[in-house]
From TrEMBL:
InterPro entries documented for this protein: FabA_FabZ, HotDog_dom_sf
Entry keyword set: Lyase
This protein's record includes keyword Iron: no
Native species: Candidatus Buchananbacteria bacterium RIFCSPLOWO2_02_FULL_46_11b
Residue ranges crossing the lipid bilayer per the database entry: none
GO molecular function terms noted in the UniProt entry: lyase activity
Designated name of the protein: Beta-hydroxyacyl-ACP dehydratase
Any Pfam family matching the protein: FabA
PANTHER family, alphabetized: 3-HYDROXYACYL-[ACYL-CARRIER-PROTEIN] DEHYDRATASE
Keyword Lyase: yes
Length: 171
């Protein structure tokens, strides 16, 4: 009988699935559909997330919202193929059609929705949307929208391609 994955078991394992320490933005998986290749998760924006990003008017940085969507996508990859993606992490390498329609501020509970649109051996592409969860319901309009987020899939602890040096710059 195949092992059944539950939301509780996924949420208990988030730190292992997304090994980003204090930069892990996905807090709780709320729903997933492996046939549709979609996942929904939440993130509570804190002052720490916004530290220094507009003093006096803290705003959750847009790049971090894109990173949060890719992290949610990494959980989806793991759920689709656990053995293949057990020790791998998607690293954001490109963004297309990323829009911000409303500021995300400390105290906001964000509802992240991702859909896997393309999967290759070493890369994945996702569509993503972020909504603000207010008064026990999800807002009607997305506050952030990404047509395509591309991630390179690498070993979790091997980021050598990101640290290549240019021989011309070594002096």
């Amino acid at each position: 009988m195949p092992r059944r994955t539950t939301l509780d078991s996924i949420n208990e394992s988030l730190a292992e699935i997304v090994p980003h320490g204090s930069l892990r933005f996905v807090e709780e998986i709320r729903n997933f559909d492996l046939k549709k290749r979609t996942l929904k998760a939440t993130l509570k924006v804190t002052k720490k997330h916004c530290d220094g990003h507009y003093p006096g008017q803290p705003i959750f940085p847009g790049l971090l919202s894109a990173e949060a969507l890719v992290q949610a996508g990494s959980v989806l990859l793991y759920l689709l193929k656990p053995a293949r993606y057990r020790r791998k992490s998607p690293v954001l390498v490109a963004m297309n059609g990323l829009q911000f329609k409303e500021a995300m501020r400390p105290g906001d509970l964000l509802w992240l929705e991702v859909k896997l649109t393309r999967l290759r051996w070493s890369s994945a592409q996702f569509m993503g949307r972020i909504y603000i969860y207010r008064e026990r319901k999800i807002g009607r309009e997305a506050v952030s929208d990404a047509d395509r987020l591309t991630a390179a899939i690498i070993e979790s602890w091997s980021i050598s391609f990101l640290t290549k040096t240019d021989p011309k710059r070594e002096n």
